[in-house]
Amino acid sequence: MYAVIETGGKQYRVSPGQTLEVERLPAEPGATVTIERVLLISADGRTLVGQPTVPGANVVATVAREGRGEKIIVFKYKSKKRYRRKTGHRQNYTYLTITDIQAEGESLVPDEERRRYEQLSSRAARRYQAKLGLLVSDLAEQEALGDEGAAAADAAAIEDEGASADLPTETSQPATPPRSTRRSARSTRKSDDQSSDDHSDEE
To answer: Residue 139: which residues within 8 A CB-CB, separation 6 or more?
Structure first.
């Protein structure tokens, strides 16, 4: 049993239980994603071919983790123009675990297998989130200790996992006394001066 899906401008052949690397999707690890652009389904000796998609067909997957690809160099050059541009790029990816293939509104995967694939994918997502949380806590600790080398290594590991290594910063503002307090202080000084003047007049 397999299906051909389209996501991120590319086509993939997928089977239940397979982990697939696709372009970054707006979904958190552990979330369920439904891919509706199914181009072909083959199961039980029967093949459904879409024109271009198979009506009523879906492929259900769970986001196992996120990541980034290897760095590539993009070099632009124009002859006799002294034009040189060199940049790097790392593509963001989402890793999906295929849990179900549906055709004509019915699931083609047995219930036991589908539940097993869902448990495996959710377990992988929890492991990824635990690893990412440990890296973030280590980064915060190394930055607090001032160890720039270890902090840079932790930040690079977090970037490799496809997450941001920016820690939230708290902006502290100098505390100013409330205006009512300043007014009360001035009023008390004025009252003291007036009382002293009254005593001097009585003498």
So the answer is: 151, 154, 155, 158, 165, 167
104 three-state secondary structure: coil
pLDDT tens digits, one per residue of 57-111: 999 999 999 999 999 999 999 999 999 999 999 999 999 999 999 998 889 999 9
Beta bridge partners of 74: 87
> Looking up tokens 């492929």, which residue turns up?
59
The pTM score is 0.69
In angstroms, the first-to-last Cα distance of the chain is 110
pLDDT for res 174: 47
42 Cβ partners below 8 Å, 6+ apart?
A: 1, 2, 3, 48
Contact of 53 with 38, CB cutoff 8 Å? yes
SS3 content of the chain, % helix, strand, coil (to 5): 35, 35, 30
Q: How many CB atoms lie within 10 A of CB 29?
A: 22
Question: Which is nearest to 33 in space by CA: 92, 123, 99, 117?
Answer: 99
CA distance 144 to 88: 31
Name residues whose C-beta falls within 8 Å of residue 30's C-beta, 6 or more positions apart in sequence: 62, 63, 122, 125, 126, 129
pLDDT tens, position by position, 126-171:
888 888 787 777 667 666 767 677 667 766 776 666 665 565 544 4
Q: What's the farthest any 2 CA atoms get from each other in the chain?
A: 118
Which residues does residue 21 pair with via DSSP β-bridges, in sequence order? 95
Element (H, E) at 8: none
